[in-house]
Design brief:
The complex is a heterotrimer of chains A (about 450), B (about 550) and C (about 160). Chain A is about 40% helix and about 10% strand. Chain A is an alpha/beta fold and about 450 residues long. In chain A, β9 and β10 form a beta hairpin. Among the domains of chain B are: about 80 residues, Ubiquitin-like (UB roll); about 190 residues, Rossmann fold (3-Layer(aba) Sandwich), CATH 3.40.50. Chain B contains 15 helices and 28 strands. In chain B, the strands form eight sheets. Chain B has an eight-stranded mixed β-sheet with strand order 17-16-25-24-23-18-19-22. Chain B has a five-stranded mixed β-sheet with strand order 2-1-7-4-5, sandwiched between helices. In chain B, strands 8-9-12 form a three-stranded antiparallel β-sheet, with no helix packed on it. In chain B, α8 packs parallel to α9 and α8 crosses α14. The longest helix of chain B has 16 residues. Chain C has about 160 residues and is of the alpha+beta class. Chain C folds into two domains: about 60 residues, Arc Repressor Mutant, subunit A; about 80 residues, Glutaredoxin, CATH 3.40.30.10. Chain C contains seven helices and four strands, in the order ααααβααβββα. Chain C has a four-stranded mixed β-sheet with strand order 2-1-3-4, covered by helices on one side. In chain C, β3 and β4 form a beta hairpin. The chains are: A alpha/beta (about 450), B alpha+beta (about 550), C alpha+beta (about 160). At the A-C interface, β3, β7, β11 and α13 of A face α2, α4, α5 and β2 of C.
Chain lengths: ~450, ~550, ~160
């Protein structure tokens, strides 16, 4: 695995890798020139579709297929939103790309806009990435100077503007319609679907929302072809007609209790064990692993015995996790209390639930209150049943919420309690010997709200 | 005919009809509970109370394919072959979950909350909620903050349905209401210095499905289960909003709009909503009085009709000023009665109160400058009875009165605001027998021979015709004060009709006698009747 | 609409010009809301209520609409400016695993403030953040535009000493 030739991270070690000069010195913008010189938007769409590229933002939706949902022969304008809101705990690969190789992202973005006939691209970046903001803005300016943006790009007749739009610290702006609402100047309450963004999105016009890493892949697909892209990764399971495969390189974010946390590129499908051992330098302090998040906290938890889980779009689902998500692996060793971990997870989702729909707004807040009471030594075994019920009932999977944040809140609850039930029961019985068996309601904690 | 299946029952839709799951289910007699959906506002599907299961019936095979997960009924169109399931365990559990969620942090306020008795949270808990509370216990009462002159907010009772915010953005337009904060910290609020201050503000209280929004005028005045509701029509302007009068023991406590797609959709303006205080004003003319040698003397009602009649018959020239506040039936009875005494009696349309300009809001709701409910109806009655062009109040004052030809004049009023002054009163100096029928004293009333009380809109039976030729009929909601005989009853008696006043009988006469009203036979629908359309379709 | 109570103008000409420069980028003025809030926040270190009224006027919105958006994000302070330095200590899963909660507590103790508050001398506002996206450097802190990586108690003390 270590012999894998980096593609997305090929340039990051070069000094000034974020400048146009350095980017072009290694062939940067050759794909753009080639495509604008001789291909049509349809050609690009077909190539991307054939490549099997699936979105890297968390949902894994086939990118080429998403692009075909745009209405044919629409008079325009069509908008492209680049989702650089990266806020999924554990995830930082978009930051990497934007700080160290922004031109790669921009070339991919321009190609994607060309393919979808978008006239304006809004590059929505979270406000917590000041260096990435500076570098991407600088890169955009360089592109305008070089004629890669603006009117009649490279004489092709295609025109595109890219505008950076700064976020303000809300995780839900990473949801595509939450992002759209945020750009439009309102609170980022995700929209009900249908209509889907491709039909009625930003400013009620056809809109495509894609992730930073996804468009970077588009660049390479257009440079080296769909077949090349498919030569990496995991083909679809022949027994599952709905499996779209897991093709291409992937940036894996590794953090937590490993010796070498970092952003590593590998073909889709390596296992957690391989990631920890071959890239992460093994467990810190030689300790034993206990659990790992497979793809950002929303995806849930793998037990240490499940670290043979392949990190492709199908793997985590086989281990009762939500999916590959952002491929952000957070490793926990034996010193970690699962009760503490779950409290941290519930705290995150309660803080970032947009509050629009009842099951998520109330469910995330309720689960946090339950966890706080358990941590305060006043937990009951019945609380675990309530937590599981909340986890089993909120989300777009059962259909009870408008967006997938609730599913993200639910999976850590379900996985942590079901896979580590003993830990939770021990803690509750140990810290609340008088009351752990109670089933009737108990007085609420007086919680001091901060922020 | 497109057919939808709700819980196994088939419902036919009219071609081109666009309904959602909630509406389709209602057609089948099935309630789908909901908080955030309202037919007059955008669909947000955020409360999640209306979750149902849906599927499609294959027209060829008849096989039903269900989607497999819950969907909000409010955002699911009912088209041919759509299947809705609202009564299985999955749906019931989802409803119980949403209901439990809303009660987790809900203040224990029922005993001090205005909404008790008409509260969706209460009703749905009773129908669909869990048997017991499972969450931690922390009883508390709601915080309260004023949103403006008309509406107060009980912050913690809010279930974040956002109907009120959407109303101020989509209908009334000034967007005063907002959601503040995020997640479970969300609250409704206004921006400091920009209170909820628009002419439709009271509607947000109607919209609120729980007791979060309170009408300051109604707050703590009456429990809903003691009130009776009566369908009525607002008398505030020529829009003629369909309303409901809620009263207890002949005391009005509040007015609410009634849904009428042809007139007011679901709304009414604040002026109309709060414009009923005159009904219980202690300064109302309390009973009939006649000017005698020693000043005004009380007369008992049994004597009034006989004495007025004989007074009027002694006059050589008669005129009647017919107020645009009278119903169609009352106008007709008064006009024909006076003409019955003197066939050439002058019939005058009373002054039309006008204030400001017509104001139209998004989606068409309009507050009209003409501040009376029945000018069109009264006009049509007068021109129908006389066959001659209308005589206006201005003309009457400037031309007819000074001629000295009229020594007997009946002036019907019912104006809430002052409408005449001493200059006007002076014009009536030579009228020997002046009957003035009105709410309050005025210079004209003070010179009258007969001072008669007027009835309020909520005290009478009859019909109004609004600006768009729509006739709406209504019945009385509260009894008039003891000394007040409703105009209709008095005119019926003067006209020599026997038995109790029946406005329906009079309307039949009007429909037969005057072409404009020819469509007003038979049952008048709750939403009223378009006289013009139906008249063109066929009549005399 | 009610005429607004008379307030002293808060937005400078420069801020207004910056805000208006965003308008051609979007087909709707409401879309300039977030950029406008950032313009004001960058200049004043908070967005006072009076600024909301002025932004609303420029964008043809009701003040409540702008305030609605601002309050959703929790990023913008309104009562008074945040400290000269605004430091966010990440508390999401990777940083939590590496001891971020204890670090934040330690720093707050030393400064005698609660998370979210500003020191009495106005120099520093210390807050928690949700995932700063620098998990390979956990526990981390974003102070102004500087990312402090792999924060230790010693490094935290040094940071506070150097303010």
């Amino acid at each position: 695995m270590a012999e894998f030739e980096p593609i997305l991270l090929a340039n990051i070690d070069r000094p000034d890798s974020h400048t146009r000069q350095v980017y072009e010195s290694t062939g940067g913008y050759s794909a753009l020139r080639k495509v604008l010189g001789s291909q049509t938007p349809n050609d690009v769409k077909e190539t991307v579709k054939a490549s099997g590229l699936r979105g890297r933002g968390g949902a894994g939706f086939p990118t080429g297929l998403k692009w075909t949902f745009l209405p044919k022969d629409h008079p325009g304008p069509i908008y492209f939103c680049l989702n650089a809101d990266e806020s999924e705990p554990g995830t930082f690969n978009n930051r990497y790309l934007m700080e160290l190789d922004p031109h790669q992202v921009i070339e991919g973005l321009i190609l994607s806009c060309f393919a979808t006939a978008a006239s304006t691209a809004y590059f929505y970046m979270r406000c917590e990435y000041p260096l990435a903001w500076k570098r991407v803005q600088q890169a955009v300016d360089e592109c305008y100077e070089a004629g890669y943006l603006g009117k009649n790009i490279l004489g092709s007749g295609y025109s595109l503007d890219i505008f950076l739009h700064r976020g303000a610290a809300a995780y839900i702006c990473g949801e595509e319609t939450g992002l759209i609402e945020s750009i439009e100047g309102r609170r980022a309450w995700p929209r009900i679907k249908p209509p889907f963004p491709a039909v009625e999105g930003l400013f009620r016009k056809p809109t495509v929302v894609n992730n930073v890493e996804t468009v970077a892949c588009v660049r390479h697909i257009m440079e080296r072809g769909a077949d090349w892209f498919k030569s990496m990764g995991v083909p679809p399971d022949p027994k599952n007609p709905r499996d779209a495969g897991s093709y291409g390189p992937k940036l894996y974010c590794l953090s937590g209790h490993v010796n070498k946390p970092g952003c590593y590129e590998a073909p889709l499908g390596i296992t957690v064990n391989q990631l920890i051992d071959q890239y992460g330098g093994g467990m810190r302090g030689g300790r034993k692993p206990k659990a790992a998040i497979p793809g950002g906290i929303s995806m849930g938890l793998l037990k240490a015995s499940e670290f043979d889980c392949p990190l492709d779009f199908n793997g985590p689902g086989k281990y009762a996790c939500l999916g590959l998500g952002t491929a952000a692996v957070v490793v926990m060793d034996e010193t970690v209390s699962m009760v503490d971990f779950l409290h941290n997870s519930c705290q995150f989702f309660a803080h970032d639930s947009c509050g629009q729909c009842t099951p998520c707004r109330e469910g995330t807040a309720w689960s946090l209150r339950l966890m706080k009471r358990i941590l305060a030594g006043k937990g009951r075994l019945k609380d675990l049943d309530l937590l599981l019920e909340i986890g089993d009932t909120i989300g777009i999977t059962p259909g009870t919420t408008i967006c997938g944040l609730a599913d993200g809140a639910a999976w850590p609850i379900k996985n942590a309690i079901r896979k580590f039930r003993g830990d939770f029961e021990d803690h509750i019985k140990r810290t609340n010997p008088e009351g752990w068996m109670r089933t009737d309601p108990v007085p609420a904690l007086d919680l001091v709200e901060i922020h | 005919m497109p057919t939808v299946i709700v819980d196994g029952k088939e419902v036919e839709l009219a071609p081109g009809e666009r309904l959602n799951g909630i509406q389709a289910a209602a057609r089948a007699g099935v309630e789908v509970p909901h908080y955030c959906w309202h037919p007059g506002l955008s669909v947000v599907a955020s409360c999640r109370m209306c979750l149902v299961e849906t599927g499609k019936k294959d027209p060829a095979t008849g096989k039903i394919q269900m989607l497999g997960k819950l969907v909000p009924a409010c955002q699911t169109p009912a088209t041919d072959g759509t299947v809705f399931v609202t009564d299985n365990d999955n749906v019931k559990n989802a409803r119980a979950m949403v209901e439990e969620d809303l009660l987790l942090r809900h203040p224990v306020d029922c005993s001090i909350c205005d909404k008790a008795g008409e509260c969706s949270l209460q009703d749905y808990h009773f129908e669909y909620g869990r048997e017991e509370r499972r969450a931690d216990i922390k009883p508390f009462n709601s915080r309260r903050r004023s949103l403006g002159d008309t509406v107060t907010l009980f912050v913690d009772r809010c279930v974040m349905c956002t109907r009120c915010v959407r109303f101020t953005r989509e209908i009334s337009g000034d967007a005063e209401l907002m959601v503040a904060n995020r997640g479970a910290h969300e609250e409704i609020d206004v921006f400091p210095g920009f209170p909820l201050d628009n002419k439709l503000s009271g509607n947000v209280v109607d919209l609120c499905p729980v007791g979060a929004l309170g009408d300051k005028d109604f707050l703590y005045t009456q429990r809903v289960w003691f009130m009776k509701s009566h369908d009525g029509v607002c008398a505030g302007c020529s829009t003629g909003c369909s309303i409901r009068v809620d009263e207890n023991q002949d005391r009005v406590y509040r007015l609410k709009p009634r849904e009428n797609p042809h007139v007011n959709q679901w709304w009414m303006c604040d002026e109309g909503r709060y414009g009923w205080k005159h009904i219980h004003d202690p300064n109302r003319i309390a009973g009939p009085r006649r000017r005698g040698a020693k000043g005004m003397e009380n007369v008992e009602w049994p004597q009034v009709a006989k004495q007025i009649d004989s007074d009027l018959r002694r006059c050589s020239g008669l005129a009647a000023v017919v107020s645009p506040h009278l119903t169609v039936e009352e106008a007709y009875l008064l006009a024909t009665y006076i003409r019955g005494i003197r066939p050439n009696a002058l019939l005058v349309l009373g002054p039309i109160p006008v204030s400001g300009e017509d104001e139209t809001f998004a989606k068409g709701f309009t507050i009209r400058a003409e501040k009376c409910p029945n000018r069109k109806g009264v006009e049509a009655v007068l021109t129908g009875v006389t066959g001659t062009p209308l005589v206006t109040w201005r003309e009457f004052l400037d031309k007819h009165l000074p001629s000295g030809s009229y020594d007997g004049v009946w002036v019907s009023g019912g104006y809430v605001a002052p409408w005449n002054d001493t200059a006007v009163a002076d014009r009536f100096a030579r009228v020997k027998t002046l009957v003035v029928q009105d709410f309050f004293s005025s210079p004209l009333m003070e010179t009258a021979t007969w001072q008669l009380p007027a009835a309020a809109f909520a005290e009478r039976d009859g019909s109004y015709v609004n600006h768009a030729d729509r006739l709406q009929s209504f019945e009385w909601a509260v009894r008039a004060p003891a000394g007040v005989k409703v105009e209709g009853h008095l005119y019926w008696q003067l006209a020599g009709r026997t038995g109790l006043f029946r406005s329906r009988a009079v309307l039949d006469d009007v429909a037969r006698a005057i072409g404009y009203f020819s469509a007003a036979t038979g049952v008048i629908p709750d939403v009223g009747l378009d006289l013009k359309v139906n008249q063109l379709a066929g009549a005399s | 609409m009610n005429p607004a109570p008379v307030r002293k103008r808060v937005l400078t000409d420069e801020m207004v010009a910056k805000i208006k420069a965003y308008i051609p980028r979007y087909p709707s003025k409401q879309a300039v809301t977030l950029p406008a809030l950032h313009v004001v926040n960058d200049a004043l270190r908070h967005v006072p209520l009076a600024a909301i009224v002025e932004i609303a006027e420029i964008l043809d919105l009701a003040p409540a609409q702008v305030q609605d958006t601002l309050s959703f994000y929790g990023f913008f302070k309104q009562d008074k400016p945040h400290g000269e330095v605004r430091a966010w200590v990440c508390r999401s899963v990777s940083c939590y695993l590496m001891g971020a909660d204890q670090l934040l507590d330690r720093m707050c103790d030393r400064l005698h403030i609660h998370p979210g508050e500003t020191t009495a001398d106005g120099k520093l506002t210390l807050e928690y953040a949700e995932c700063l996206g620098a998990c390979e450097h956990a526990p981390c802190m974003l102070a102004g535009e500087t990312l402090h990586k792999s924060l230790t108690p010693e490094k935290a003390d040094a940071f506070l000493d150097n303010l």
